Structure formats: C-alpha cells, structure tokens
Amino acid sequence: MARQARALATRQAVLLAAAEVFDERGYAAATMSEILDRAGVTKGALYFHFRSKEELALAVIEGQGAWIATWAPSSDSPVQTLIDLGYAFAHALLDDPMLRGSIRLTIEHGSFTQPQIAAYQGWTDLVHTLLERARDAGDLHPGIDLAAAAAVITGAITGIQLSSQVLAERRDLIKRMADLWTLLLPGLVQPHALARLSVAERADS
Amino acid sequence: MARQARALATRQAVLLAAAEVFDERGYAAATMSEILDRAGVTKGALYFHFRSKEELALAVIEGQGAWIATWAPSSDSPVQTLIDLGYAFAHALLDDPMLRGSIRLTIEHGSFTQPQIAAYQGWTDLVHTLLERARDAGDLHPGIDLAAAAAVITGAITGIQLSSQVLAERRDLIKRMADLWTLLLPGLVQPHALARLSVAERADS
DNA sequence: GGTAGGATACCTACTGGACGGTATGCGCCC
DNA sequence: GGGCGCATACCGTCCAGTAGGTATCCTACC
Prior knowledge:
The structure is a homodimer of 205-residue chains.
Chain A: H1 5-25, H2 32-39, H3 43-49, H4 53-70, H5 78-95, H6 97-107, H7 114-136, H8 146-168, H9 173-188, H10 191-194
Helix pairs in contact in A: 1-2, 1-4, 1-6, 4-6, 4-7, 5-7, 5-9, 7-8, 8-9
Chain A binds a DNA duplex (30 and 30 nucleotides) through helix 1 and helix 3.
C-alpha cells in the first residue's frame, strides 16, 4: 500500500470536489463532469481511484465516520459534552464541505441503503453512550428510555439542520441548536443538573 | 374550465404515480418513463397535463397544502391538538403516497427552491398558531419564544420522520413521535397543563 | 549510479444508452 | 365540427463508464 504522495493529493482533491457537488446537487443530480472540473482532474485519474460514482459517494459518506472518530469529549459533564457535540457538529456543517456532502448523501436514502444506516447508527451510538454516562452520573430524570432519547435527539438535530438549510441556508443553525436544547433539556435532565449546564454555546471547544 | 371527467382521472393518476416515484427515488433519479408506466398513461397524456417534470413535481408538492387545508383541530386544548397533529401527520405519511412524495420533494432542496420554503412555512405557521393559542390559554411556560419553538418542533418532526424512514422504513414512526413529545413537552408546557395531556396517541381523530 | 522494466498514476477520445421533451396525428365528446 | 384529450414516433443531449495509450515513479540488478 505504499502509495505516492501525488496520488493521495489527487484522491483528496477528488473526494473534496465530490463532497461539494454532492452537497449542492444531491447524488443523482451530481455529474462526474462537474466533480472532475472542480477537482481539476481528468476522468482517467478519477476512475483510477474510484471505480464508479457510487463508490465515490460511499467514500464521501465515510467522511462522517472520520469526523466522529476525531471528535473528543469537551467536558467532565456528559450532558454538557452532548450539548457541545451539537455545536461542534453545527460548526462542522458550516465549515467542512466534506461533512456537508456526507450528511446530504446520508439523508438521501437512495440507491445504496446500507452505509446510510451505519452513519445514522454512529451518531445514535455516540449520543447513547453520552446519555448512559449522564444517567450514571445521576443527571437524568429516572426512568428515561435511553435508546428512545438517543434516537429522538439525533433525529431532531438532523431535522433542525435540514430545515435551517432549506429555510435560511444554515444561517440560523447555531441559534436553532440553542432553541432545541432549551426545549429538550427540561424533559431530559433533573433540575439540579440543569442548573449547572450552559445551554448556549460555550467559548471553548 | 369545464374539463372532462376522464381528464381529471388521468391527471390524478399521473399525480399519484409521480408522488410514488418521487417518494421512492427522489426528484433527479425519478424518470418520466416509470411515472408513465405506473400511471398507465402515455407520454402525450402526461405532457398534456404537465408541461415539464418540474411542473409535475411542483404539483406533487402542492399536495402538502391540500393536506394542511383539510386538517381540522381535534381538541379544545391547543397543545393536545398539536400532539394529535403530529400523529395525524405520521399516519398520513404511512398511508398517503401523495403526502409521502410531497414531503420527500420538500426535503430535497434541489433545483426549484421557492415552493419548498412555502411548504415548510406552512407547517411552521400552523404550529406557531397552535402555540399562540396555548400561550393564551396559559398552558406554556412564561417567556417561551414561540417562533423558535415552532421552528424546533417542525424541524424535529421532520428529522424524526426522516431517521425513522432511513433506519426502519417508518415502522417505528408512531413510537418515535411519542418519544419526541415525552422529551419536548416538559420544556414547553407548565406542569398543570402537562397533567391533562395525553402524550401517547389517542383513540379518536 | 545508471538503467531496465514493471507497476503506479494519469490522460484523451469515444460509446452506448437513457432521458426529457416535441411534433404530429387522431378519435371522441359537447 | 371544432377543440379537448390523448397516442406514437422521434430527436438532441447528456452522462456514466471504458479502451487504450502515456508519463511518472520505484525497485533491482549490475
């Protein structure tokens, strides 16, 4: 697997361009030509690295896994970490074309079905783990169904992000995220824990 | 505008088939041929009623407006009505292909941008109105930002529905809706009002 | 350290098919 | 009998993917 540095660079260029185009047009409406142009690469180069349009899309979707993998807890408090995760995700959506394309492809449950489920599951698992820690810390209301709460939270964030994109090109995404936590947290965490949380975005990571 | 009955029938057949195909494949991946086949109609008939693929899609999106227009409040309590609206929407998503296609097209912020915003806005306005009534009835926490809450609720329902579709083909949609209300309501309504609500689906409409 | 030779990385031109849309014609209801 | 409603055949375009060639790099042997 001793690849050349140049090869890795073009591969990355293709991935980035593909993520951008997929994000803007969606899978079916995206054309290889536009990806080619934007990457500054020829067809031969692209099809050397990716055997088909679908394989390219799958590689873009994989970007989510990479993002999750590099993410690190930001606080001792699990719930605060969950809130911060939401904001980190929001900022990544605003800044990182790779994640944007990945998210759009995931949301478009289209021809390829399996990997989307994996991507969704990755987020839900992450949230679920944080909720478990919060429960063990005694921060949550007793009797909360963690799996249900994790599914609702990931689903809600998905929808918030989507509606913010359609209605305002994500300009109000951060505010919408704050609004979501304001509404959700009272049903999730106990008052004593709620008092210690910063619902608005915090200064540090 | 005295149209023939037959014409209206084929127009409806085309709309229904289009909604189904758009729902299953998305706008770009949907082909006119498949819509034609499923509607049992020829190209000439379709293009007599709709001048282009885009115009057909817009007509499908309009189905949402029709659904909202026919919907009627189910309870004296505004919040209960809001909850019931969520379940009614969920059932319509499970049963009504027209609404399904319309929702998918709305979610796919694609080539045509304007009407999606209108569709989103229709839902948000409806929720906003119900929240206003709830506030006037003294059911909500004081100081709640109604516009923000309306945006979060519609966004969250959008996302719940979407993740339920991707992960479980909407099989757990009703449960997810119940989970959402369980989490959301404590942050929205005051305890005395919460006690009177039925979060789970009710027997009547 | 120079070069043979194979593998890696990339380029260009092309193809086959599908797709949205149109032109034209024809029967049937009012 | 005229226009509404539909049928059929056709067209130009565009797109994913491929064929086949070329350049660039790495390794190894002398």
